[in-house]
Amino acid sequence: MIKQNKYINEKKDSGEVKDLFYEYNIGAKPFLKWAGGKSQLLDKFKELYPFELKVGVIKNYYEPFLGSGAVFFHIVQNFRIENAYLYDINDELIITYKVIQQDINKLLDYLYDYQKVYSRLNKKEKHEFYYEQRTNYNLQRFNINYKYYSENWIPRAAQLIFLNRTCYNGLYRVNSKGEFNSPAGDYDNPKICDEDNLLLVNKVLQLATIKAGDFREVQNDLSDHSFIYFDPPYRPLSTTSNFNSYSHHTFSDLEQKELAKLFKFLHKNGHKLMLSNSDPKNVNPNDNYFDKLYSGFNIHRIPAKRMINSIGTKRGAINELVITNYSNYLWEKDKKATLQVIS
User: Fold this and answer.
1) How does the average pLDDT of the chain come out, rounded?
2) CA distance linking residue 316 with residue 165, whole number of Å
3) By C-alpha distance, which of 325, 210, 212 is closest to 266?
4) HSE toward the beta carbon, residue 58, CA cutoff 13 A
């Protein structure tokens, strides 16, 4: 049965002196499967975060391409962040985050019903139920007002989580018409209602301002002592690996260049910046596209496991790019002394 906010109430009534760092270090994890999610890279990312974040100077975190939010969950629970600003151009994603933030108990009720119904079906019936929900999800998108929070957002968010947990490989994919078109997955007992984690996600999202919009929206909310992490749709490595259909908006080389312009603008204004993308040198060692686009910045190449490929044997390790406008030299040079300062 649903616990109805038990965890949150226990914490709220404890009477202890609050410490933002420890209060939010509670084990919340991404609640969606998402192509290109960064969970596997967090240990390496931690080494590449700015020194000012590690010593508690940076208080404001910004993520203009939210997706599953793996980096947000990592940062908000490991560093002394006081405010987070989260953006995505995918309206469905944003309303789901907002529902978890504002109406977690009602959402859990819907997800519990999905879990109960789905678990009683045989495999054929599971597939039929999935496609019924997918058709309804696509048809109902015209009846949703994405600009203003309403009760209609709650079943919509539950439907997205259900589809994400039961579709093929957790692949959120839409066509040019904005229709979700991932096929059904082949699961016996998927965890549709992960109540414990969703309650923890609700807790850490209390720090966040969540907005629908493209990456340029971040400029409207920036303040001092800020760290911005960009995780745009990756530039395709080849014509056969061109998945970046997280929304019906395309992200072509023109958008990659516009993002690079914003990166350089924010750098001149003193913000700490980190950006990830594909490394074209995986398929062509002479392809210097990103080396030229981000010339003058620090370009790190880190190994990552390719998760989305129709051929399992091709899901091997490749390099991804992490570009920063700061150096971790001081941190790495004298890590012991730095840790003493922090403690």
Assistant:
1) 87
2) 24
3) 325
4) 23
Partner residues linked to 128 by β-bridges: none
**Confidence label for 21 from pLDDT (cuts 50, 70 and 90):** low
- The answer to whether the CB of 240 falls within 8 A of the CB of 279 is no
Residue 64: which of 41, 42, 23, 93 has the closest Cα? 93
Listed in sequence order, the residues at least 6 apart from 168 whose beta carbon sits closer than 8 Å to its beta carbon are: 182, 183, 184, 185, 186
Query: Which residue pairs from 128-137 have beta carbons closer than 8 angstroms and sit at least 24 positions apart in sequence?
Result: 130/163, 130/166, 130/167, 130/184, 130/185, 131/184, 133/159, 133/162, 133/163, 134/163, 134/167, 134/180, 134/181, 134/182, 137/163, 137/180
* Other Cβ atoms closer than 10 A to 317: 9
Structure tokens, 262: 């914003």
- The C-alpha atoms of residue 322 and residue 6 are separated, in whole angstroms, by 40
Rounded Cα–Cα distance for residues 172 and 190 (Å): 16
pLDDT tens-digit series, residues 88-108: 999 999 999 999 999 999 999
Tell me phi and psi for residue 185, to 5 degrees.
Answer: -85, 175
Contact residues for 177 (Cβ-Cβ < 8 A; gap 6+) = 248
Rounded to two decimals, what is the model's pTM? 0.87
DSSP, collapsed to helix, strand or coil, labels residue 169 as helix
pLDDT digits over 189-220, tens only?
A: 999 999 999 999 999 999 999 999 999 999 99
Q: Residue 144: which of 104, 102, 110, 94 has the closest Cα? A: 94
CA dihedral for 173, 175, 177, 180, sign (positive or negative)? negative
Q: How far apart are CA 252 and CA 48, in angstroms?
A: 27
Inter-CA distances, 306 with 11, 33, 284, 309, 314, Å: 39, 14, 17, 7, 8
Which H or E element spans position 21? Answer: helix 20-23
- Smallest CA-to-CA distance from 309 within 243, 224, 227, 237 is with 243
